[in-house]
Write a structure and sequence with these properties.
The complex is a heterodimer.
Chain A: H1 2-6, H2 19-31, H3 37-62, E1 66-68, E2 71-73, H4 79-85, H5 103-136, H6 140-151, H7 158-163, H8 166-169, H9 174-181, H10 196-207, H11 209-220, H12 224-232, H13 237-265, H14 269-275, H15 282-291, H16 295-319, H17 322-325
Antiparallel strand pairs in A: 1-2
Helix pairs in contact in A: 4-16, 5-10, 5-11, 5-13, 10-14, 11-13, 12-13, 13-16, 15-16
Chain B: H1 6-39, H2 58-64, H3 72-100, H4 108-120, H5 123-137, H6 143-168, H7 173-180, H8 185-213, H9 229-238, H10 243-274
Helix pairs in contact in B: 1-10, 2-10, 3-6, 3-8, 3-9, 4-6, 6-8, 7-8, 8-10
Classes of the chains: A mainly alpha, B mainly alpha.
Amino acid sequence: MSKVDNIHHSGLIGSQPPAAEASARAKIAHTEEGFPTAWLITPATIWLILFLVVPLVSIIVFSFWENTAQGLVPAFSLDFYGEYFYTKGFFEPGSDRFLLPSVFIRTLGSTVYFTLVTMLLCLIVGYPIAYFLAMQVQAFKFQLALFLLCMVPFWTSYLIRAVAWLPMLGRRGLINQALIGMGIVDKPVSFLFYSEFGYTIALVQIYVVLCIGPIFFSLAKIDKAILEAATDMGATPFQIFREIIGPMSLPGVAIGMIFIFVVIMGEFATAVVVYGGKTSTAGTVILNYYGIANYPFAAVNALMLMLAMVIGIVVILRIVDIRKEL
Amino acid sequence: MARWTPERWRKLRVKTGFSVYYGIFLMFIYGPMFAMFVLSFQGRRGGTSFPMRGFSLYWWNKLLEPSTVGDMQGAMGRSIILALMVMVITGLFATMLAMAFRKKFFFSNVLFYTILTGLMVPGVLLSLGMAILMRQLGIPPAWYTSGLAVHVIWALPFSYLVMMAVFNRFDSSLEEAARDMGADEWTVFKEITLPLIIPGVVAAGLFGFTLSYDEFARMTLLSGAENTLPLDINASMTQRIRPTLFALGTASTLFSLLMISAFLGIYTILYRRSR
C-alpha cells in the first residue's frame, strides 16, 4: 500500500503537494490554535517580575548601599561585606581570634551543619517508609491511602507542630515522666527541649515527608520483573538493594534532599519556638538586623544564605544527575 | 493453598517488620499533635503538660472570648480572606500558564524556572526584599497588598505543577473536533476544555488556599499593622505558653484537615463527573 501512496502523479487539477509538506503545514496551523500565548502568560509574568524578581534583585542592590541617619543612600560600598567576613584580630597571630571566622560565617556554618544532620536523619527515617509503601504494599489504593496518611501533617501549620513538642519533650513532658517512671533518671532531664536535640527531632518530624514523596515515586517506577529476575539468578536481598533498588532510587533521594535543604536553610520559626531563641540560625540573624533597621547588613546576610543554598543545590546535583537518571 | 516454605516465612517477617516500623513512624508524626489535642481539654488549674487535672472546656472558652493580648478571631478572619484571594488568583494564573505551556514559546524555559524560583527561595529572603523595597518607595505593607503578593508567589509553583500534570493527560483531539465543527476559541474553552480540567483547577486553587493559610515566613515583615493567624500564634508563643495555645492549635489543625477533606472530596466528585 505504501508504495502506491508514495507515487507522485499530477492530478487533474495539478500536481499534488507531497505528504510531508502537508503535515508540516498542519503542524503550523495546530500551534496557532488556542488562546494567544501572550494573553495567557502576561498577568502571571507581570506578577512574578514585580513581586519575585524585583525584590530579589533589590536585595543585591541594597547590600551595596550605605545606611545613614537619613535612611538608605545609594552607593557602592563594600563595608557591610567587610563586616560580614572580617573579625578584629583575624590576621594578628597573638590575638585569641587569630584565623577565627567571623560570627556570621560561624552562624551560617552551624546552620549548614544542622541542615546536613537533619537531612541525614530524614533520609534514615524516611527511606524505609518510602520503601515499605512502594515495595511491600501491593494494591495501589492502599499505597495512596498510606502515603496520604503521612502527608496530612504537612498540611497543618508548622508552628503548631513545633509547639506540640512541648508536652512531649518539656521538663515535665511525657518523655521525662517515662524516664523517671522507669527509674532511668531521678530528676527530669532538660536537654530534651530548648536544645539541639529537641530542635533536630522537631525538624525531622516536620520535614521528613518532603523526602518520602520523591523517594516513593522513584521506587514505585522500578519494574518488579527486574527484581524477580535478580532473585531467580540467586542475588541476595542486600545485593538487590545495592545493585538495583539503591541506584534507581537516587534521583528521588536527590530531589527529596534538595527540598529539605532549601526549607531548613531558611528556617527560623522552629528555631525560636523549640530552641528557645538561645541560638541563631542564618534566618534569625537576617530578621534581627532588619529589626534594628540595618537593612544593608540584613541584605548581605540574606545574599550569603542564598549563595550557600545555591552551592548546596549544585553539589547535590553534581553527586546525582537528576536529568540523566529520570 | 501454597505451602509455608522458608521463603514465604522470611517475606512475611520482613513485611511485618516494615509494618511495625510504619506504625511507629505514624506515632512519631501524629503523637505530639495528639498530645496537644488532649491537653487542650486540660482542667482549669492544669498546665501545659500531663497529667490532666480534670477535664474542661475552660481553655476553649478563653479562645472565644475577646482577650487583652492579640486578636485571634480577627486574625483568623484575615487569614481566611487572604487564603480565599490567593486561591482565586493562583487557580486562575496556574490554569492560564499551564494552557500557555501546552505550546512551545519564546522564553518558556526562563518563565518555567522563574515560577519554580518562588518555591525554592526562602521565605525570609523574599520577605526581606519586599520589605526594604516598600520602605524605600514609601508604601506601607499590609496583609492584603504585599502579603497577598508574596503568598501568590509561594502558592503559584505548586498550583502550576498540578495544572501541568492535568494537561499532560489531556486529550486535545476533543478540542480539535470542536474546532473542526466551527466552534470559536472561547466556545471550545467553555464547552470542552473547562469541564474537563475543572477538577484540576479546583485542586490547584485549594492547594493555594492551604499553603497561604499556614504561611508564616513570607508574612513576617509584610503584614503591616494587622496580623494573620500564623503571626498571631507566633506572637502568643513568645509569651508564657498556656493551654489556650493548644486549643488554638487544635482548632487550626482541624480547620486545615477540613480543607484537605473538602479538597479530596470535591476533586473526587468532579473527577468522576468529568469522565
